[in-house]
Write a structure and sequence with these properties.
Blueprint lengths: L1 E4 L6 E4 L2 E4 L2 E4 L4 H7 L7 E8 L3 E7 L7 E7 L1 E8 L10 E7 L5 E4 L3 E7 L3 E8 L8 E3 L21 H4 L11
């Protein structure tokens, strides 16, 4: 497993070692000991999976304390542009974002620690996304920031009209979001 820093402190790109042969491939998608030693010592308590069509934007989602979540994101089928936004008010990178293409082909994973909002846009015809979380989903603590907040200026790669839920379209801008 190779771990590389991204433009945001704490957000890490993880590339598993993939073993190919005539039958196909094998890779270890998660190993707690290696993750603890190389990325973060966190418990994972829930796996979530989504299926989306091309152009769908999901996010920017997060949970506030005491239920803030870290997420380990990977793609089982298709390709997405995955985004993390630093929403830690005291961070020198507050309001900055990073985006990474994750796909079933490249098998890369993105570690998005607590204190970051997360979202993605589907680039392929369809995509299945799996993410492990460090805390359980809690409706009471769930929050969102508008995916197209002009102060964030996220450069979403598909320039088509995205398919976005009413909830995500109506989310507040970062300047009005509840962050703690």
């Amino acid at each position: 497993m190779k771990v590389a820093a991204t433009a945001l402190d704490g957000v890490m790109l993880i590339e598993p070692q993939v073993f190919h042969d005539t039958r196909g491939y094998f890779f270890e998608s998660f190993n707690h000991q290696r993750f603890r030693e190389s990325v973060a010592d966190v418990p994972f308590v829930q796996d979530n999976q989504s299926f989306s069509k091309k152009g769908v934007v999901r996010g920017l989602h997060y949970q506030i304390a005491p239920k803030a979540q870290g997420k380990l994101v990977r793609v089982l089928a298709g390709e997405i542009f995955d985004v993390a936004v630093d929403i830690r008010r005291n961070s020198p990178q507050f309001g900055q974002w990073t985006g990474i293409n994750l796909s079933a082909d490249n098998k890369k994973q993105l570690w998005v620690p607590a204190g970051f909002a997360h979202g993605f846009q589907v680039l392929s015809e369809t995509a299945e996304v799996l993410y492990k979380t460090t805390d359980y989903w809690s409706a009471e603590h769930e929050r969102a920031i508008r995916w197209n907040d002009p102060t964030l200026a996220i450069d979403w790669p598909l320039k088509m009209n995205p398919v976005v839920s009413d909830k995500d379209n109506d989310a507040p801008l970062l300047s009005a979001a509840t962050l703690a």
